[in-house]
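Thread: Newbie trying to understand structure tokens

Hi all, I'm a second-year student working on a class project, and my supervisor (Dr. K.) asked me to get a predicted structure for one chain before our next meeting. I've only ever worked with sequences, so writing a 3D structure as a token string is new to me. If someone could post the tokens and maybe explain what I'm looking at, I'd be very grateful. Here's the chain:
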Amino acid sequence: MYNAPSIDIATMPIADKVHRYANAKYYKALLDALQAAANEVGCDFALSSRDAAYIPEDIYEHLAFNLVLAREQYLRPAIGSIAHYENAESGMKDGYAHLLLRDVLSALSELGLKWRIRSIEYYDREGLQRAQARRTNGGFPPLPEPAASAPSIKADVSRLADEFFNGLDTPKEDIPT
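---
Reply by user tm_fold:
Sure, no problem. This is what the structure looks like when written as tokens:
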């Protein structure tokens, strides 16, 4: 038997520690998602006294969506990815995602962590397009493009179907009934 004394956990000092721990865990999940979204478009955060680089609207949308998606996944883990995406889209429409991103970027900036484009090539637009395709597909990777041989197969099937149905229309010899 364990003889340690019982502790009253319903106190302000313990509540403060639990609150800080729980919020730190929550914001770590959000920052992981923000960092991954930034990396996807060729950006990151760096200690700097310079102003943060301008964030174009489509990149800002990408970051906001991924941030609010991470929030949904963290706070509602059991509802499934389709509901996560629908809720994240709702957060985009009602402005919550943009507000959350603005607040997180402001807090990072106060810590001296500024948005930075890693490459002199500007943003990674291909990375952004892949992310936008994923978002359009509800989080699932986009369907692959059909193989080059697929159109000829489709044409062959179409031709065979035409021949079959045209054959049905062609008069046949009288069939005794």
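A couple of things are worth pointing out once you decode it. The chain has six helices and two strands. The two ends are 94 Å apart (CA to CA). Feel free to ask follow-ups in this thread.
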